Fold this sequence. Notes:
By secondary structure, the chain is α/β, with parallel strands linked by helices. The protein has helices spanning about 1-15, 20-40, 55-65, 75-80, 90-100, 125-145, 165-175, 225-235, 245-260, 270-280, 305-310; strands at about 50, 65-70, 110-115, 150-155, 185-190, 210-215, 240-245, 260-265, 315. The longest helix is centred in the N-terminal third of the chain and has 22 residues, at about 20-40.
Amino acid sequence: MGxxxxxxxxxxxxxxxxxxxxxxxxxxxxxxxxLRTVIKLKHYxxxxxxxCSDDETISLITNQRYSLCRFGDGEFQWMLDEGKQYxxxxxxxxxxxxxxxxxxxxENLLIGIPKxxxxxxxxxxQAKMYWEIINRSHMQCIMKMAGNNHKFADASISRPYIDYxxxxxxxRKFKELQRIWNKRDLVIVEGSGTKLGIGNDLLDNANSxxxxxxxxxxxxxxxxxxxDAIIRCVDKRNQLVLVALGPTATIIAYDMCKVGxxxxxxxxxxxxxxxxxxxxxxxxxxxxxxxNESGNISFSDTYDCEKKYIDSILTKxx
Length: 318
């Protein structure tokens, strides 16, 4: 009952106030935690860490068939037993697998961490504060788990809009991202509410699109079934796998890369693109899609009966 009331209050506030007011309200919400963190903890620096440019990362993926595992703030928190509970329960198994991937050195596999943790110069104010919080509270512990890894991709490569100041920057980054699947045959491994590329033109330059539909919550508990489905359904020589499945995607990209598949953990790229198209200033719900960051993980069945979506489904693990 309380959650329903809070949801209605939030909806009322969003209708009453302009988006900029809501954005600055959210900035003010982050401010107390930011100030406490800055006062108590030191900024983490490590001169050995190198983060590849997005162009280098995309070239490795497109030209040399590299795979990509992404570690964002959520993965860091799951690795440190602080995982969010709304779509993936914390567990020792999940923590250990993420730590295994993070410290691995697998040929043709890129490990991504958010560049904003170390350089947030292109970010907006809210993102600058948030990444500074993550830097000071998490990175010293996280980088101890990295093993000999010092060169990373930017995990935020698939999140080029909502945290950034310049719309032109975002436009350029989406164009770069589309090189990854340009004229490729795709298999998308996603939660049932994700519907990546449905309702927009993000994937229109792909040659073909098929899907493996997975649980929208606690997908890690079904990871063996999901990976078996990839082995059954995907032609490792000719198809590119895009995975949008929370922290489970990070592990799937690692496991499948080791046995010869090209897998890119693509994360929230679809919702970022919709926010970009709509010029949203904060993380808002999207009709017909699950957007856990909006505070409302329920979604309508807008696209469930769309022929393009139904015809693309190879199998479901629900």
